[in-house]
Each structure stands twice: as C-alpha cells, then as structure tokens.
Amino acid sequence: MLSGLAAACLLGCAHGATESLPTPVDAAPKVAQPASASRQPAAAERRWADEVLYFVVLDRFADGDTSNDAKVDVSAPGAFHGGDLKGLTARLDELSSLGVTALWLTPLVKNIDGFVTGAGFPDWGYHGYWADDFHQVDPRFGTEQDFKALVDACHQRGIRVLLDVVYNHAGYGSRYLKDHPGWLRSEETGTCGQDDVTSCVSGLPDFKTEQPEVARYLLDAQLDWAKRSGVDGFRLDTVKHVSHDFWKEHRRRTRAEVSPSFFLLGEVWGGDAQTLDAWFEGDEMDAGFDFSFQGSVLGFVQGRGRAIAFDRYLQSRARVRAGHHLAHFLSSHDVDGALHQLGGDLARFKLAVALQLTTSGIPVIYYGEEVARPGGDWPANRGDMPWGSRAVKPGAGLARDEGLRDFYRQLIAARRAHPALSRGAHQALSTDGDVYVFLRTDPETHDAVLVAINRGETRATVSVPWPQAWGQEPVEDVLGGGRVTAGSALELVLEPLSTRLLGRKR
Ligand SMILES: [Ca+2]
Ligand SMILES: [Ca+2]
Predict the structure, then answer these.
(1) CA of 497 to the centre of ligand 2 (A)
(2) C-alpha 263 – ligand 2 centre gap (Å)
(3) Which ligand is nearest to the CA of 237?
(4) Ligand of minimum distance to the alpha carbon of 211
(5) How far is the CA of 263 from the centre of ligand 1 (A)?
(6) Looking at residue 40, what is its pLDDT?
(7) Range of lowest pLDDT (9-18, 253-262, 490-499)
(8) pLDDT averaged over the chain?
(9) pLDDT in tens, 120-129
(10) What is the pLDDT of residues 48-80, one digit of tens each?
(11) Which CATH architecture has domain 429-503?
C-alpha cells in the first residue's frame, strides 16, 4: 500500500605524538583549496562509484528560450515555469563550478498538453513523467538539436548525462489510449490490475509491457533517444511496476545497441541495499536509489538514535552486490526536502551534507539544495532554481546561500580528490555520545580519510588511534586547513555541530 507521501509523490511524478601523549591538532583557520582540475580523471576513465550526480527538474531550472513557453505561470505550483534545454546548456557553469560530474535530467518526451486537477490545483506535465508521444521532444523543453547540444556541452565539461525514462505508464488521457487502446490498462476501461506490475499507479494508464509489441515500441523509442543523443545512461522510473523480464530485455538491448557501459540507475520506490538486490541479482540495472539514507541521516543529525546504530546502517550499504551501486539523496522531487524537514536548521543540514559526501554510494544533489532552496513538501519540493541577482528565469531574485554552496564545493572537491571517500572501506573509530568518527580507506590508491562529526551542541574532544594507513607522515585538515602530525593517538577537538576531514594531500 502506498503511504500518503508516496501517493502525493506519484500524483506529481507518476510518479596523534607518542604512545601516551595525544597529538594536538593545528586548526589554523585557513580555507583549503579545491583539488586542481588537472588531477581529475576524464569522464571515460572515471568509475560510476566516484561520480557526483546532480538532478535537475528541467522546467524549474533555467529558461533559455521564452519563445517555447506555453501557458507558463511561475506563480502556479503545478504549471510549466519555462525552464528548457537551452537554459540548462547556458548554465552549465553552475554545475562545473560546483564540481559535480554527472547530470540526471527529467524526461524530455512530449507530455500531455493539458492539466489534471486531482491534486486540487491545475497540475501539468512540467516534470516530464506524463508522456503523450515517446517520439517527440516536448516543444516546451526545446528540440532534439537542443538536447544533443546539451549532451555535447556536458561531455565537453567531463559531465556525464543520465536521461530519465518512463516505461510503465503514459500520461493522463494520453493519445496512446485512443491510438492503441489494447496497449494499456486504464481506469477508464476498468482494466487496472491489483499488483505492482498491473496496477495503474496514481491512476495513470499502465502499459502492458508484457506484450512484445508494446515492449518493443517503448524500447525502440527510448533506445533511439540514447543512440541519437549520446547520453551515458538512463534513470529508470517506477521500476517495480514493470516486470523483471522487461528489465532483463532492456539491459540486453541497451548493452547490445547503445553501449556495453550504458549505465542504468533505477527507482525502486522504498528501495535499499537489501531490496534492490532483486534487480541486481539478475543484473537488470547498475544502481538503485537508497530511500533509507534520508531518514537515517536526518535522524542521526537530530540526535535520534546512537551513533553506532547509524554506523551499522552505513556498513549495511557497503554490502551491496559487487559491481552495483546505491545512490543516496537528501532531497528529491518525490520526498520532502531535507532542509525543510530540519526546520531550516542549516548547521544540522551541513552535517547531513558532509555525511552524504563522505560515505559510499553515488551522492545525488537535488538542484538548488546546495544554495539552501527552501524546498518543502510536494509540490513545493519542485520549486524554481534560485538565481539570486542573476537575470535567469524562472528563479531570478530567489535567495541563494553562497556559503552553503562553498561548503558543498569543498566536500565535492575532497570526494573527487580522495577515492577512499567514494569507494573505500568503512571503519568506525568512535561512536560514543554525539561524536562519530570513521575512517575510509582505499588500498588500491593508498588513500585514507578520517571523518569526524559532532552532532552535539557543545565542543567535544575525542581520542582515536592514529590510522595505520597514514604511516608516520602528517595529514591535512581538508576542510579547515592546517596539518596534523603523526603519533600513536589522535586527539580531535570538534566544535558544536561541526565536521572535520583529515587525510593525506592528493
Ligand atoms: Ca522556455
Ligand atoms: Ca505497470
């Protein structure tokens, strides 16, 4: 059964020193520099485990062509707001300067022309999940040439692109109901089933993907977009509502016809390291979203539960099947934003951000949360990208927290410079009280980074053994600047609600 939250979502998304003397820590307050661009591997050499993904709801990001705006109303939460492919392409500096390495883009195919009112207000297909024609780019987003130009521009910047695709359903009242009535289960015809695969999610017409003709039509259409645009993979919508057989055929065809390395990131609603294995076991996709991260990390930073329990959760994430990945988010278009859930508490939000960017999995940053876009529950979680004083619609004039963005930029640079943070082994060093210290180590690159979090409101001191992986050389205070000299123990001083990262300079 769908929770109230899931139902609301689906309406809109369809869906150290010596042995005895601890080392004093030199915490000179200087700002660390981000890793130089020249040290960063090219996209083709990077592993997906090392990517930092940025998710954009295209209509809500940047309007680069007002001539394609149709019935745009930025004051209406369910209306199109004018964002498009040209706008995003013109604003790729926003992604590059943040340091993200991959873009996830909402679906581009033509959506239904009108709106629905089930949510209590006019709700349009601005999010792209209500398809009306799988063979056309929605003119409100631009043209196929604009799409190709975006992908090319991303690739020139070393940014990979994942296109969001929907196989499960068409939009409300879609032309497919008229043109191919035999292809769909629908409420209109009373043919919706009761199980995950045959039900009409949020009342949307459900494709009979078990019929070879229907599966072939949808696969041909989406694979064609992949071939023509050069995207690096798909984000798959509503995975649990389509059969495993379909996803196996989908995997076979994307590898055979697009690229053996074509990446598939699936949305299995409520998925986590354990439940996603049903799709990893048969290698139907490379990665899936870990829906448990948000709740776990927000609970931890708010002082709920012991650090050791949160550590056990993080350890469980590492048990994902070899060759597969979890993607973890703080906010998305389908859940209430993390900053909103924290009541706007920026200090605790920054702890959550630090944990997102120093633990295993593919971190997904939801557009604007890096500048403290307030978010909210649905549909406020799909607000406009804040552009501050820049004359960029739809979010011109919306406030940006550049200090928070700098914090993100520092952590992303650290993650990219330190493979241990993205793919290293995870070891807890201290889980006492409000201080949580863990070590990430990657034997392959001899990289080791210590992460220390103080979720308490008072300054804390903790002593942990000097990590063997560091040898006897000093290490850098990655976020705060300064160096720490080696010894048998490491004494860490942590300010209230703060994060420290220590590691060898790379
Ligand atoms: Ca536009
Ligand atoms: Ca279905």
Answers:
(1) 45
(2) 22
(3) 2
(4) 2
(5) 29
(6) 63
(7) 9-18
(8) 92
(9) 999 999 999 9
(10) 999 999 999 999 999 999 999 999 999 999 999
(11) Sandwich (2.60)
Report d(CA 497, CA 301) in Å as an integer: 9
Spacing, Cα 148 to ligand 2 middle (Å): 30
pLDDT at 23: 36
Contacts of 444 (CB under 8 A, 6+ apart): 419
pTM for this one? 0.92
CA distance 416 to 472: 24
Q: Does domain 53-423 fall into CATH 3.20.20.80?
A: yes
Name 392's Cβ contacts closer than 8 Å, sequence gap at least 6: 62, 63, 87, 91, 385
User: Looking at the CA of 65, which ligand is closest?
Assistant: 1
CA of 7 to the centre of ligand 1 (A): 29
Which residue type sits at 283?
Answer: D
| DSSP letters for 158-226 | T-EEEEEE--SB--TT-HHHHH-GGGEE-TTTT---SSTTTS-GGGPPEE-TTSHHHHHHHHHHHHHHH
Instruction: Name the residue ranges covered by the structural domains of the chain.
Output: 53-423, 429-503
Per-residue pLDDT of 94-109, as tens digits, reads: 999 999 999 999 999 9
Tokens of 495: 């300010």
